[in-house]
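Researcher: I'd like a structural prediction for the single chain below. Treat it as a standalone chain; there are no partners to consider.
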Amino acid sequence: MHTLQDILYKINILSVSGRTDISVADIQIDSRKVSSGSCFVAIKGVSNDGHDFIENAIIAGATSIICEQAPVSIHPGITYVQTADAAKAVGIMMHGFCGSPTYDMKLFGVTGTNGKTTVATVLFFLFKELGYNVGLISTVNNRINNEILESTHTTPDVISLNLLLKRMYEAGCDYVFMEVSSHAIHQQRISGLHFTGGIFTNITHDHLDYHKTFEEYVRVKKYYFDQLTNKAFVITNLDDKNGSVMLQNTSAKKYGYSLKTAADFKGKIIDNSITGLHMQINEQEVMFRLIGEFNAYNLLAVYGAAVCLGIEREEVLRVMSNLNGAEGRFDWMLSQQQHLIGIVDYAHTPDALLNVLTTIKKLQKGHEQVITVVGCGGDRDKSKRKVMGATAAEFSNKAIFTSDNPRSEDPSVILEDMKEGLDLLLMKKVITVQDRKEAIRTAVMLAKQDDIILVAGKGHEKYQEIKGVKYDFDDKKVLLETFKELDK
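Model: Treating it as a single chain, here is the predicted structure.
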């Protein structure tokens, strides 16, 4: 059993009222999860302020309160600890409460707008194939060796994250590969964790509904690398204009990867086809199953991380050559009789969509049409909708605008936002089919032999969120079922 004074170690304490030698049963940031003996941490969130729920937490059994503002009403027998940053404090406290597992495993973080899931997932399978016990924390799912756990966020909340890391340590994990989202960095969900290293993939237009400006988005990403120690290492994408920015002010050892300039991990694409990438990496030629220039960057990042973690270069490339990417990332399938190519991809930002469509263009032999099915999420950054719409229309022969996860918004309004600013030439390419299943079926019906159908935006997701309800929906399943009907 932990005492309060044990878990307050390393916390910036402003004041204490009450005893600190009391036992703590658990730590909670949600008053509804508080029980007898809990320590409740009042965090100021985006939509709620934990300080408003301190009384609820005490009624539910909390015996200690961590807060930034001392409550007006002080209960006898309750310990109150005031700190400058409760969000940062709870991460440090929770990590200590769980036994500081990241000091006994090698935790590796991957951050950036695009590529996080593929890089983290390929690293997981690479090290698993090399014989290590491995953990994965990603958008698609969380894994502990062969055990697959459901994932609800790119980076879990601070309580769930530390409990998951504890489970990974207890399972004997040597390495843990983790996607680190900008929300998690900004909300201090990763405070207290000890990272062995980090990768920066790229940074493009995304999450401006949350961060408000692109400059703030860059600053938040950079903050992750600023916190790394001189015993850690950073691998950055030198071909991204903000790649070198991420290295400023970090104490970690610095490495770079590139397709275009001199780098520690230098790559060159020899051939890019539907069967995979033929690349040269640091003068050695290798065939990979992943497709596209964007995956060339992902593979370089994985290679660099593995080498920096001490694995022999030849062994890294040997194993990587047999690995597949993450589910829903340029996930392709064929209609055998009609010779159609279907591709499902998570691309939900303008840059990610452009990357996928540019890759498809390079796979074309000349006469095939590209038909893109795409939508935009509701209650998210509205400024990217018209950019997504313009990108899909410009780089496709036909673009079918459809519903994504509208959430609380009217899908028809989102679709109108996507069409904003399109000229007459691009509008001629656009068809609007609000029902996503019908949109996919329409794309297949419009396609002719050898055409390429891209279904973008949802990738691995197995649901569609409408008015607060998550309905079963799987782009890949719908596309495969439509292919089968066509091939009968």
